[in-house]
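Course assignment 3, question 2. Fill in each field.
Student: A.L.
Task: Predict the tertiary structure for the chain below.
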Amino acid sequence: MTAVVIDASAGVEIVAGTRRGRALGRLLSADSEGWVPEHFYAEVLGVFRRRLLIERTITETQATAAVARLGLWHLHRASVAPLVPVAWKYRHNMTTADALYVALAEEIGGNLLTDDYKLVAAPNFPPGVKALVNAAKTGDTNAITALIFPANQLATQASTYIRGVSGYPSFYQAPEALAVAQHAAISRWAAGAVAAGHGHISAPTLIGDGADDLMTPPANVHKMVKEIRGARSVIYPDAGHGFLFQDASAWAARINAFLK
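Answer field:
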């Protein structure tokens, strides 16, 4: 059996049954044995409470079903107290909650399943722990396109997308430090951990997204529309993060009309 520690960022998506959660689930091998420190349950419940009562991005029925699945999920549970000395080593670059997942993975010699790139990119993330992360960081083009396009669009969109981005004369790659900082800021905002500051934007604003976007969910668009006075949004049905490619002509027309 392969021991895999599952952190809250991955656990939430898996029990919620989202497409992102299913993509994370595919990273687990058939012989995977799930482990969690006991605070995992408190973290996951807290996320569903926030999404239901504060963000209002899920319904009561969805939240109740997810919590029920959480209770039925067979996971090995580890006490937090024995993990404290190891977790304390990571105090400068990880939150306490995150450090406990890493400490457990070290203690049992297991992998770590996470949807948190900031955690994996921490300077002192232990090299002995294999991180099972978002497919966008694996370099696997099939996995990447599966995140960008809905399943029923892959056959028609994926190859065109790969040819298109491969043909760029100089494809931009953000410096690693900048990529980490960007991801951290986006993650904190999406989690409701910090004020986004969108209310300070006064310029006319148009926001686009795909209805099935796994990477920047439409719920984020709805947040921005509420915070930015007069903002408008366009959500393309049957599209994901790759709506810019999939619906390029329609989106370009909307932008041109918006700028007139």
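Instructor remarks: Residues 2-133 form a domain with the Rossmann fold fold (CATH 3.40.50.1010). The chain has two domains: 2-133, 151-259.
Grade: pending
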